[in-house]
Amino acid sequence: MKETTAKEQQDVLGARARRMLDAAPTILCVVGLDERRLIEHNAALARSLGCTEEELSTRGVEALSDRIHPGDMAGLAASAERLKGARDGEVIEGELRARGREGDERIFAVRAEVFARSEDGSAREIFLSAEDVTERKRREQRLHRSEALLATFCDHAPVLLYAKDREGAFLLVSRSVEELVGATPGSMLGKTDSDFFPSEVASIYNDVDDLVRRNGAPFEAEDPVPHAQGEKTFYSIKFPLRGEGIPEGSVAGISVDITRVKAAEREREAARDELIAAQQDTIRELVTPLLPIAEGVLVMPLIGFFDSARASRIIETLLQGVARHSARIAIIDITGVKAVDVQVAEMLVHAARAVGLLGAQVVLTGIQPAIAQTLIELDVDLRGLVTAGTLRSGIAHALKRT
Fold this sequence. Notes:
By secondary structure, the chain is an alpha+beta fold. The chain has helices at residues 2-23, 43-49, 53-58, 61-67, 73-84, 134-156, 175-181, 199-215, 259-287, 308-325, 342-357, 369-377, 391-401; strands at 27-32, 37-41, 92-99, 105-117, 123-132, 160-164, 170-173, 219-225, 232-240, 251-257, 291-294, 297-304, 329-337, 361-365, 385-388.
């Protein structure tokens, strides 16, 4: 009775152990080396490789070999030879490519050690455990490609790329940043702006970084950067950098060299100023035309309204014209003048006196009745000016005098 109970308990424990082994996601099996026989295995072997229990029972190791990548067979044979002389507890590790149950190639991390020995002490059975690491390897490959792409991007980017931690130490810099400050590849990591820039410049950079941290938002500005060939100007965007594995308070930035753009802007502004000055000169000539009509005779027709600046230009143009043409008579025609006030009257008197100092005479034409009345009311002293009702009569007068 007691023997029966013990046997039943042993069967229960054995069944439980089998269930535990079959539930394990890792492949577990025992292989006989001499006869190349699959002695024991759990359900994960069939699940992972798509083998049937009948196939494993009849073909065993041969069924497994059919699914292993041909390129890995030589390495597998070498590992088996190593195991024959391995010590107890010595583990041989490696990776194998095999065809999975969906027919796709899978990668397995394999561990093997001696499980049982022959009477002569040589390895007779080995215990294998294998874990499907395909997805992990793919993630590692993607990460490796991403890191390689980022490194290549940072090496060749024509802009400055950089990231700093809360203390301002560089976490990442592009090759362009290193070239700008004359640093060797990788030498800027862990250092700060004060190691490469004057203290006043580094202080400005740190203040901007702190502003970005406080506001938690991007900040744009134009940054002057000292350089061996002269100061450069960069357009910079700095922003908070957050994410898994990134130190809290980190800040990143992208800076574009706009030195040439700023120089071109200054050139355009200078050219624009020159154009505006030329246009103003042209306008002054148009609003104060001076026409030589005969030897020693000039005519200046005036139109519109006047201010002090225009009155000064009129007198300046008139005097320059009289001197340049050696004129004896200068006719000022005010037919097109809208109104005469004290300012206009004083301008006419000043013009007459100034021209007189150059030995010439001013003839004022085009005086309308309303303007004549205004001049009288203003009590303007027109002595030194010859007046004529029309430009035509003024020209006739001038021609008689020359």
